[in-house]
Design brief:
Elements lengths: L1 H8 L5 H13 L17 E2 L5 E5 L7 H4 L7 H12 L20 E5 L12 H16 L6 E5 L1 H13 L16 E3 L5 E5 L4 H4 L6 H17 L6 H5 L1
Parallel strand pairs: 2-3, 2-4, 4-6
Antiparallel strand pairs: 1-3, 5-6
């Protein structure tokens, strides 16, 4: 996994994303003018023996792109970390910066894209360029039993990853909807949630109870099924 993270950090596959992340890091915004921005692709983070995988869309321009840790330093990260803390996957309710003491237990957090896209709209090619990193990570996380996908892009990306690693998808192909639950082969369950972006949380499309219900279900599934062996080990 460490090798994969090094590859991620040094990735330059997408010229548009390289330009955008570096421009943001150089120009900054007034409230973060004293920060030294990370300005590189964001590695994933968490427990390598996790049963819960969380897949987001991409780091925020002034969140992960600034702090260097996924879902750290922005409102989306605040929502996610509080939910993980509430249901026993994190040791603290806030994620402010690398080195703030945050530890995840039985949970691993990653994303479909490792650089902030302009207007939060990645191209298909950019997603395709980045997906091999997620494929490698999932292969290296053999104890995953529940995946929470935050948003449609994360949901569709994870299904494509499943296909690439040989997990059979149900027919008809699962469709994204908040609260959807998809039972995949080898005891793997995919849960879908709206992304906790301000576009969703400030408009009321996603409320805190709605979001927490997803992680309550993840905890219930993991508790009900016991320790388990994970999708990769059960299929070997």
């Amino acid at each position: 996994m460490a090798r994969v993270q090094v590859e991620v950090i040094h990735c330059t596959r997408c010229p548009r994303l390289v330009l955008h992340r570096e421009q943001v890091a150089a120009q900054r915004v007034r409230r973060y003018r004293d920060w030294e921005y990370w300005g590189r692709p964001i590695p994933s983070f968490g427990d390598p023996e996790a049963a819960l995988l969380v897949v987001g869309l991409a780091p925020a321009a002034h969140g992960g792109n600034r702090t260097g840790r996924i879902f750290t330093g922005d409102r989306s990260g605040d929502w996610l970390t509080r939910a993980l803390y509430t249901f026993g996957f994190a040791n603290q309710p806030r994620s402010i910066a690398r080195g703030d003491g945050l530890k995840l237990t039985n949970c691993y957090v990653t994303a479909a894209l490792r650089c902030p896209p302009p207007q939060n709209r990645p191209t298909r090619r950019e997603l395709e360029n980045c997906r091999p990193y997620l494929v490698q990570e999932v292969r290296l996380l053999p104890t995953i039993r529940v995946t929470v996908a935050l948003g449609r892009i994360a949901f569709d990306t994870f299904l494509r990853v499943c296909q690439e690693i040989g997990v059979v998808l149900p027919r008809p192909r699962p469709q994204f909807a908040h609260g959807a639950r998809v039972r995949l082969a080898h005891g793997l369950t995919l849960l879908a949630s709206y992304h906790p972006s301000q576009q969703n949380t400030l408009t009321g499309r996603l409320t805190r109870p709605m979001f927490h219900a997803i992680f309550r279900e993840a905890r219930r599934l993991l508790s009900r099924e016991g320790s388990g062996v994970g999708w990769a080990r059960s299929s070997s």
